[in-house]
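User: Hey, quick favor. My workstation is busy. Could you predict this chain's structure for me?
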Amino acid sequence: MKANRQLTYQPDYAIPPGETLREVAESLGMTQQELGIRTGLTVQSLSRIIKGDQPISYETANALEMAAGVPARFWNNLEARYRERLTLLEENKRLAGDLDWLRSIPTAELVRRGVLQDHADAVGLLRNTLSFYGVSSVAAWHVLWDKPAVAARRSPCFESHPGPASAWIRLGELQAQKLPCQPYNRELLVQRIPALRALTRAADATAMSENIQQLCAACGVALALVQEMKKVPWNGATKWLSPGKAMILLNLRGKGEDRFWFSFFHEVGHVLHDSKKDLLINDGSTADPREQRANAYAAETLIPASQNARISAARTVKDIQRLADELELAPGIVAGRYQFLTNKWGAFKPLIRKFVWT
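Assistant: No problem, here it is.
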């Protein structure tokens, strides 16, 4: 879906309502002195109103209705639109100094995905981009995405490509926020692990993803599936949107079913075992002990280490399929473990289903 490009004319000036007042007085043949007498306003006040230096108050609007026959609501609306326009012009001047930041954000990709409204004017596009992030200024964006305490736990990708990195996370947040969830229940999530694991054998990938989301939502976990973003080589992420709602964010970058399920249970491990304050990125690195723990949890949840010797000894497709039946897993996951254990990355490759975006 492609967003419509805005081509509406936006003048860089604002016409004060006093200009309309001047025209109304002239049409009635009134001088400023006479209008002042009829409304109880001084000539100086009327002059300031006409120039836009003094607002038309509710009391003045009522007086103008009685003196000129133009409804008070007309003057009130005119004044409100004028002040709104002045505020917008001042804001645009402020935003114009932040256009350099806009070039770091993949706006064209976000427009292509239909999540960002394009704009013919660069400042207008900047405003739309800030709205996408849910902030009112670039300074606010930096506060949310550049906190040293948070950035220290992130992938180096945040340092080199903060725009695409933050955009992918934000897309996940927006999707996850829309997913209705029960309050987080750790015990229930632990209980649902076998049911989630059993879905690896589902034949239909679309139904499988919907079932995963439903099972997770019942435990207070929103599973967001967001198409991979260029320059963001991540497998997934975990973030708590609130104390009662966790987000697991996944893509399909290079994912056969074995990698998809490993990534999923890796993130489940973060939800179960790590702090609710951290944004945890799975970029494949193992320097962080929390990533090592999440990897170990995913591996053991899918296939206990006690089965590794049997898997390594497999020689035929039937061997892999028989083990998969015993373990109640998709054959592709067993094939993936065999590849990992033996470093034979081409072995049993046809057994590993590929997930693609529909």
